[in-house]
Write a structure and sequence with these properties.
This protein is an alpha+beta fold. It has 2 domains: about 1-40; about 40-265, no CATH class. The chain contains 2 helices and 15 strands. β14 (about 240-250) and β15 (about 255-265) form a beta hairpin. It is elongated and about 90 Å long.
């Protein structure tokens, strides 16, 4: 190779070498960022937060209308028996709050608080058709008891059942811990035998002082569930039914953020 050819090729060599070094530097930085993620105390909490939200997101809105009137969950009397989530009027609400209080909807924007109405499968099914007129109590028959406690307070989520394929929540009114509890609903319904029996799950999720809290609206009030989380962000795309969640946590002096999006089963 002549000197002229060497001189001609030198800029290209420098350019390629610089590109290779840039790629290597980015790879090293990415590796260190990955180390920062997994070694931080909050990383395990991030994984648990996502795992915790996955099942409620999957079953969100099952057995419920897309939007409901406030009295769908309320007994005719007394008026104070109306549960908190009846006022939400839909399965997913995102907004801002201060430690879970003073919720204000943020619409399609990011908020620091999530309100979700979902269900928990009990593993039991209806052994006979459940048919009832509005506000009339009837006996049901399940393949097994759906709860251990006899709570029938209409304000608590543990007193409500949902059935996939229907849009009418059912309230336990007597013998709640038996295989044949007495139930009622605000609207008439007919649920075929063999339908899975689910328990209603209502959640308010927020962060306070570096800890994730959840209020299940079951009488236990807000409960600390995950630590080492600095902030939570939620956003709901109602048209595409996408719930995005971002979690911020500290790694030394750095503040790191991880996000995930679910397609909700509304």
């Amino acid at each position: 190779m002549t000197l002229v050819e060497v001189m001609t090729a030198l800029p290209l060599f420098v350019l390629l070498s610089g590109g290779a070094l840039f790629v290597m530097q980015n790879a090293v930085e990415s590796f260190h960022r990955s180390e920062d993620y997994v070694s931080a105390p909050g990383w395990s909490s991030v994984e648990r937060v996502f795992a915790f939200l996955e099942t409620p997101a999957k079953h969100c809105g099952v057995g419920l209308p897309e939007r409901w009137q406030t009295d769908l969950f309320s007994p005719p009397l007394p008026l104070y028996s109306m549960p908190a989530w009846s006022l939400w009027q839909k399965s997913v609400s995102v907004g801002d709050s201060v430690g879970g209080y003073g919720f204000r909807s943020t619409g399609a924007d990011w908020g620091n608080t999530l309100r979700l109405v979902s269900c928990t499968p009990t593993g039991n099914i209806l052994l006979k058709e459940l048919q009832a007129e509005a506000n009339v109590s009837v006996k049901s028959l399940f393949s097994g008891a759906v709860k251990e406690e006899n709570t029938v307070d209409a304000r608590l989520s543990v007193s409500w059942l949902l059935f996939p394929g229907t849009e009418v929540p059912v309230r336990l009114v007597r013998e709640a811990a038996s295989e044949s509890p007495t139930v009622t609903a605000r609207e008439s319904l007919a649920v075929p035998w063999g339908t899975p029996v689910c328990r209603l799950l209502a959640m308010t999720v927020f962060v306070k002082n570096g800890t994730v809290y959840v209020d299940y609206h079951d009488g236990s009030h807000e409960q600390p569930v995950f630590h080492d989380v600095q902030a939570l962000g939620f956003r709901f795309d109602e048209d595409r039914r996408l719930l995005s969640v971002r979690v911020q946590f500290a790694a030394g002096e750095k503040m790191l953020e991880v996000s995930r999006t679910w397609k909700l089963g509304l």
